Amino acid sequence: MRIAHLSDVHLGYRAYSRTNEHGMNQREYDVLQAFRRTLRAIRDAEPDLVLITGDLFHAVRPPNSSLLAAYGYLSDFQKSRRNAPLVIIAGNHETPRVAGSGCILALLKHLDGVQVVYDQIDMPYIPSLDASLLCIPARGVPDIERRILQPNPDTRYNLLLLHGLLEGVTQFTLERPIDRQKIVRDEWDYIALGDWHMYQQVAPNAIYAGATEFTSTNIWEEAGESKGWVLYDADTRTHEFHPIRTRAVYDLLPIDAAELTATELNQAIESRADALGDALNGAIVRQRVWNLHPDLRRQIDGELLRELKARALHYLLDPRPPRPSTGGRAYGQTPETDGESRLTLADEWRLFAATYDLPADIDRAAFIELGARYLQEADATEQQG
Ligand SMILES: [Mn+2]
Fold first, then answer.
1. How high is the pLDDT of residue 7?
2. Distance, CA 228 to ligand 1 centroid (Å)?
3. What is the dihedral of CA 358, 359, 363, 368, to 10 degrees?
4. Residue 55 CA to ligand 1 centre (angstroms)
5. 7 C-alpha vs ligand 1 centroid, how far in Å?
6. What is the 292 CA–ligand 1 centroid distance (Å)?
7. 129 C-alpha to center of ligand 1: Å?
8. Which CATH architecture best describes the domain 2-244?
9. What are the domain boundaries of the chain?
C-alpha cells in the first residue's frame, strides 16, 4: 500500500500587507498555491491512501477565500483519484476551544472518499484497503496517557495518525511532550505525524511530513528547509520526501553594529542583500542587526531600505539595541507586530543569559533552559486556540 502524507497546510494563513492582483493577501495565496501543487503531485503519484495530519486550516474560522478554494481543490482531487480514501485529522489550529462547537473539517466529510476525525481518538476502518487507522486529533492528545493504543489484529494494515509534538522533536522543553514510547512502536505499519513544521523522520515507520509552506511563528528557524510531502510504502517501510516550490525565506547573517560607522552599517546591509542577487525579489527576508545604538539606527539609509522592501515580498530589518538595555524588556513588548518575534525573544534570552553574571553555584545551562521553558510556556498560553 502506497501512502501520500501531507500536513500543516495552514489554509487561511495571512501575513504582511502585500496583496496579489485579485486583492488577496499574497501569503494566503501562496499557501493555497502550495496546497494545489502538493495535491497535483500526489494525484500524479497515484497513492492508494492520502493522509492529512492536522492544521489543514490555520484558524477555527478560516477566511471564505481559502475555504472555498480548498473545497474546490479537494473536490477535484477526489474526483481525479476516483474517490480513493483520504483521511484528515484536526490540528490545534482548526480545533475550537470548546468541545461540541463543531469543526470546519466536518464540511469536508461530505466529499466522496473523505473521512474526518476531529473530536476524539477514533479508529476508522477502510474495507477497500483492509486498513485500520488510529487517529489522534489535537483534542485527543490529552487522552493518550490513559488509553491503550494498539493495532487491530484482524486487519492487514494498521496506521497511526497524530497531531502533536513527541518528546525530543524540538530543542525546547515542552510543557506536555507526548511520550515517544507510547506512539513510536514497530507494530504500526506507518505512523503519520503532524504539528511539527519541518520534515523529520522519527523512525523508519514514523515521519513528520512538515508543513507545505512557511507558516510557523518562527519561520526564520525554518529558512533554507524544504517543504513538501511524503510518499510512503507500507510494505517495504521506505519513503521518499517530495519537495514542493514555496515562497523563498532567507535569514541573513546578523550584522554586529557595535564597532561600525553609519556608512559601514549601510554597506553591510546592502552587501548582505546583494549577495542574494535576484533571489531577493519576492522573497521573505530578515536582517538582524546586533548592538545597534539608537543614534546609529537613525542613520540607516532610508532609501536603501525602501528599495529592499520594494524588491522583497517582506524585508524585515530587525535591530537589537546594545545588550545592557535589553535586560529589562518584558515579554510581549517586542516591537515587531508580525508575531515573528517569538523565537527571536528566546534567541535573545539565550544570548543574554550566556554572558549574564551568575552566582558560582548556578548551573548556567540549566538556568538558560529554565528561562527558555518559561518563555515557551508563556507562548503556549498566549497561543492557545
Ligand atoms: Mn501547524
1. 98
2. 14
3. -30
4. 5
5. 8
6. 34
7. 28
8. 4-Layer Sandwich (3.60)
9. 2-244, 248-326, 342-385
How many angstroms does the Cα of residue 169 sit away from the middle of ligand 1? Answer: 14
- Cα of 227 vs centre of ligand 1, distance in Å, is 13
In the reported structure, the alpha carbon of residue 243 is separated from the centroid of ligand 1 by a whole-number distance in angstroms of: 18
* Adjacency order of strands within the sheet including 86-89: 114-117, 86-89, 49-53, 2-6, 227-233, 238-244
What rounded mean pLDDT belongs to the chain? 90
Q: Which residues of 329-358 are buried (b: 16+ CB within 10 A; e: fewer)?
A: eeeeebeeeeebbbbbbbbbbeebbeeeee
Concatenated DSSP letters for 87-128?
Answer: EEE--TTTS-SSTTS--GGGGGGGSTTEEEE-SS-B--EEGG
Q: Residue 331: what pLDDT? A: 42
pLDDT digits (tens, 9 = 90+) for 328-356: 444 434 444 333 333 457 777 777 776 66
Amino acid symbol at 141: V
CA–CA separation, 48 and 69 (whole Å): 24
CA of 191 to the centre of ligand 1 (A): 17
The answer on pLDDT for 154 being more than 60 is: yes
